[in-house]
Design a protein that fits this description.
A hairpin with a 5-residue loop joins strand 4 and strand 5. It is built from three helices and 16 strands. The chain is an alpha+beta fold. It has helices spanning 2-31, 108-114, 117-120; strands at residues 33-37, 41-45, 48-59, 65-75, 81-92, 97-107, 123-135, 139-151, 156-160, 164-167, 172-183, 190-200, 205-215, 219-230, 237-246, 250-259.
Length: 261
Amino acid sequence: MKQVLRALTIAMIILWLSLGILVVTIVHSASKMGIDIDDPVMDVHDKSLVIQFPFAIKNHGYYKVVDVNLTTVLYEPNGDEVIRGQTMIPLVPEGKEEKAVHNMSFHMEDLISKSEKYMFEDLNLTLVTFVSISFEHMVSFHAKYNTTFNWGAPLYNLSIGKIMFHDVNETSCELSFPLSFENHSPYLAVSGIVKIEIYNGNDEKIGESVELIDAQSNSVYYKHLSILVDSTKVTPSGTIQLSFQTSMFDFGPLVFEYETV
């Protein structure tokens, strides 16, 4: 009986020593792990904005790293989720390094459908990054950190200036006004056309025009526009409707009221 107890005692000591060595080596391996995430790179493709995060997992420890999960979530200031992306690396052998590119992408018109504020307001969004790794499916580690993602509005401070009417002949007149906005986006160019439609107070279209626009990133757009309208149908008030068609988004109509007196 004493021999059995002695054998059990020895076995327990060996077990606890083994567990202790395992814990120490795993902790040491974790300290030898390196996770490098580069600054995001923006790319525009087919009316979608793609945010790319090149990253590398460096495993200088004693164990295989498995089930690496990198998840990023972009949140509005009120906490609503905008988009998320996830990248998995199934295996990083001991002593090796694995590189990958983590992507988040969204279609501009999907973003606009969530809220038109993305067109007109600069926003401080929160980018939350989650990383989880596992050593040999035995022990897992998790990390989370937040960064600020600055969104610049492509049509910031969009406005039309003073509206003027000038007679051309007995049946036509010219409606003119300045159109301006600031493209605060560091990623998007506002390049394409803007369609201008003029309606009288009876909701009749009395004139229209199409203008080319080109506002590169971080630039100001200003142009004085003139549209020929049917003066026989002009009423004391009406509306100007603007519709944008660009390489990145279709947006509108935006309605502005006007008065002739």
